[in-house]
Fold this protein.
Amino acid sequence: MTSSLKKLIPNVLTGFRLIVGINIFLLVFYKEDFYQIAGLMLICALITDFLDGFLARKLNAATQFGYFFDHSVDFILIPLMLYLALKHLSFCLAISYLVLEIGVVIISLIRLIIKDKTLWPNAFGRLSFGFLGASVCILLLFLPLPSWIYFCYLANVFLAIAVLLRLLSILAFLSNFKKEVRK
């Protein structure tokens, strides 16, 4: 496989995640009977989210377009996941995650304006997104079952971990941003 084709792989995976994300959206809003299928599709989307970033770094194919494309697709999945969390999980935890996510966007915009640099996600942010996704996957896969209440506790624990990791992500961003401004 040629070098230029290898560099397309991460963006192809992101494009696949976009298509899957749109289908998850349609299933969740128009066919609640298909929550389990949406959960399996979300697992696929989360795996491709991990793989596209990993392969972009491994293949030396990371680009500004890829970064923008990846995060644009994430901003389709995040509101969908937060909607489901607000509807079925802890309202306080879901709102906390939403507020922190808005904080990340604001910090990113400020950094872009002041330093003309894109804010790359840190490990806490990646883990936070993964735990949010795991929480919603548990929700979608087990909500139709009679024993849902037991899995609800587990989904809320994962959501709480996602909130904590998002907070740590913001603190790391602010610490690095403060150091950059001093230079």
About this structure: DSSP finds seven helices and no strands in the chain.
